Amino acid sequence: MSERFAAADGIRGLACLLVVSTHAIVIIATHLSSGLIGVPKVGVWLFFVLSAFLLTYKFSIGGFSMPIISKYFLGRALRILPIYFIFVVFYWLFGTANIDSVHDVVRSFLMEGAYAHLWTIPVEFKYYALLPALAWILVACKERFGLVLGVLLGLALLVVEQELWPYWLTPKVTSDTRWYLSCFTVGSISAIAFDFLRGKFKSIYRDAVGLFVLVGVACSAPAIWCASTVCDENGYLINKFVYFSIAFSVFILALIDGEGVVGGFLKGSFLSLIGRCSFSIYLIHWFFVMRVSLYFEGSYLAVFISIFCSLLAGYLVYRYVELPIENFRHRLASR
């Protein structure tokens, strides 16, 4: 059994646009870069939380039988690896991601190293191997002892993760999943609480939550936050994923059904399309941003062009490469 949430693709689309647009501004409009350092990572953290939420919830309603778990692992492999491998080779051939040798290609294939924006793929893919066990622990605790103890167990896991891998020591760029476990754990905790909270709040409160989180994300940019407080523009935001993950989990709980004005915006056709294409857009956008920056540094028009090209190219890759792979994956899963 599975469920399609009305605004899930739109939330992905929002995260994708946040990453692509802020990367373009930081790399091309360099005079603005100090005010946006770390903001692209905020979009990545939203991806992490949403992914954990959706997959944990799917397990919570579908169960943990061997056929389901087998389909899960096969599905994750087919969802991520083919298109990821294609882009590793693409960046080896055409540059911009520091994949400069066969050795780099092999390391990327083995989910080692942190090459430009591709560092996020090993982090997420390696977590997929852990997710069924974590989801089972949380779901089993909830079903046996109740939601409160299930959530408390999740929070205890969060505390242990931060004791072992505290967020403030997270390397600036790393493909080591351990540092980002807390992002995923927060998403999984949200998933087991979702059914209890679903439908309990009016649309106006959902809108208030959505706007509060979106305004908070905007105000967290160094250009705004460091203008009103004492902080280091070059580093204060890059490791605050625990706080953002909690905020994003509330955002997802409030809006993933697409209710209210903000929910309606998220489930709209534009953001939903971007969300469906988000993996391909994310993988290819670095190439356009870096290439454009070589010739038009500082140009606002160049920022727009790089974003437009990223979205268009990402859509084409999705339509003619990723979607056929996805259709094949779904045919296998239906057997």
From TrEMBL:
InterPro entries, per the entry: Acyl_transf_3_dom (IPR002656), Acyltransferase_3 (IPR050879)
Tell me if Transmembrane helix is a UniProt keyword of this record.
Answer: yes
Transferase as UniProt keyword: yes
GO MF terms listed in the record are:
acyltransferase activity, transferring groups other than amino-acyl groups; hydrolase activity
Indicate the transmembrane segments per the record. Answer: 12-32, 44-65, 77-94, 114-138, 145-167, 179-197, 209-230, 236-256, 268-288, 300-321
What are the Acyltransferase domain coordinates in residue numbering?
A: 7-318
Q: Name one GO cellular component term.
A: membrane
Instruction: Alphabetically list the UniProt keywords.
Output: Acyltransferase, Hydrolase, Membrane, Transferase, Transmembrane, Transmembrane helix
- What GO terms describe the biological role, i.e. biological process, of this protein? polysaccharide biosynthetic process
Signal sequence coordinates: none
- This chain belongs to the protein called Peptidoglycan/LPS O-acetylase OafA/YrhL, contains acyltransferase and SGNH-hydrolase domains
Instruction: Name the species this protein comes from.
Output: Pseudomonas graminis
